[in-house]
Amino acid sequence: MDAPLKLIQQRIRAAASERRPLRIRGGGSKDFYGQSLQGELLDVSAWRGIVSYEPSELVVTVRAATPLSELQAALDEKGQHLAFEPPCFGDATCGGMVAAGLAGPARASAGGVRDFVLGVTLINGRAELLTFGGQVIKNVAGYDVSRLMVGALGTLGVLTEISLKVLPRAPAEATLMCSGLKQKAALDLLNRWGGQPLPLNASCWVRDDGDGPTAERLFVRLRGAAAAVEAACPRMAADVLAEGGDAQRMDNAQAAADWIACGEQTLPFFRNVAPDLGLWRLSVPQTAPDLNLPYACLIEWHGGLRWLWAPLSALTKLREAAARVGGSASLFRAPPAIGTEAPQRFTPLSPALQQIHERLKHEFDPAGIFNRGRMYANV
Fold first, then answer.
1. pLDDT digit string, tens, across residues 117-129
2. Helix axes 226-242, 183-194, angle to 10 degrees
3. For 258-265, which contacts have Cβ atoms below 8 Å and span 24 or more sequence positions?
4. Which residue blocks in the chain are alpha helix, DSSP H?
5. Quick one: which of 119, 93, 116, 125 has its CA closest to 13?
6. Which of 363, 346, 351, 369 is closest to 151 using CA atoms?
7. Which domains, ranges and CATH numbers included, belong to the chain?
8. What SS3 state is found at 76?
């Protein structure tokens, strides 16, 4: 076993014996995400590198602190990628990618992080090195346990290695910019297209309330076989025209940069907001209607993900609106002046779910030392 891994185990063993909380950190790109940052820093950034990559098998295994950019560069060389398009937000690591469980614009069609994790190795709260899952889909032993780590924000253990399924890049791609569509019309179109055999890969509706006239635009990305993409573009453009809008095909290079900016939250919508506003993340069914909330909004995932800038005082209103359609609302980025003192960022759990979370926490981390309070008070 390599020295960095032994050192991590020693730190965990000592912390557990004293019930001293540890804050796991790889690249720190998502320090803003979650409830609070408690405990002594456990820096795992030295545990990095691609362990194995089999392009013909569509599987890669990496150490947890491997920079996401390094993995993406290796996949690019072979014409492959992580289909769920995880955001980097700076110096993201593969372990942080799994721990946060965040996906980019293609999430609605390609699936999320959980759908691509084949196996993990982790160190639990007893300083034991455990392996779950494997490197092939057929190896189902521990498969569901591997998926538990996705979105757990490091509360269950320190990830050391991750095996991921990768996919070839689509042979053809096109992006339509559809202007003049209000939110309801855009959602109606997305729902209609979702029920048709179209190579719909990603979507983004945004309203621009800048200095000029208000503009409402729907961007739709198509990926797949060249014949399917070329046939879909005029068909979808005609649907937009029938709704009173206009559809133009974008230059692929410009569109690619815009989709990256969407996933990395560097679009104008995500910048230059009032300091008393937080960025709220509403996860709802794709078929949910316009929620009629009086806040700036950007919609992804064919209607399933809605970003809003709103004050903390809107917490109850936002969670009630999301719950009415079968969804949830979380505070993704707190107002700068509030920081970690913001109210509970994630929707409170039901008593039954809270009990499940606490039992899992106790099994993996009996002393409660990992990322204490990052998700919920007792998790």
1. 999 999 999 999 9
2. 140
3. 258/175, 258/219, 259/104, 259/105, 259/175, 259/202, 259/204, 259/221, 262/104, 262/105, 262/204, 262/300, 263/85, 263/86, 263/87, 263/104, 263/105, 264/87, 264/88, 264/89, 265/87, 265/89
4. 3-18, 68-77, 94-100, 107-110, 143-148, 183-194, 226-242, 252-263, 315-324, 351-364
5. 125
6. 346
7. 3-168+354-364 (3.30.465.10), 172-268 (3.30.70.2190), 273-341 (3.30.70)
8. helix
Hey, what amino acid is at 47? W
**Amino acid (1-letter code) at residue 215:** A
Strand partners, 331: 280
User: Which residues, other chains included, contact 240 with Cβ-Cβ below 8 Å and sequence gap of 6+?
Assistant: 176, 178, 181, 189, 218, 246, 247
Average pLDDT over residues 37-45: 93
Length of the chain: 379
- Could you tell me how far CA 136 lies from the centroid of its own chain? 23
Query: What does pLDDT average to over the chain?
Result: 92
pLDDT, tens digit, 9 for 90 and up, residues 231-262: 999 999 999 999 999 999 999 999 999 999 99
Of 11, 95, 101, the C-alpha closest to 49 is 95
| Apex 328 CA angle, 323 and 333, nearest 5 | 140
Q: Identify the band that residue 377 occupies on the pLDDT scale cut at 50, 70 and 90.
A: confident
DSSP label at 294?
A: S
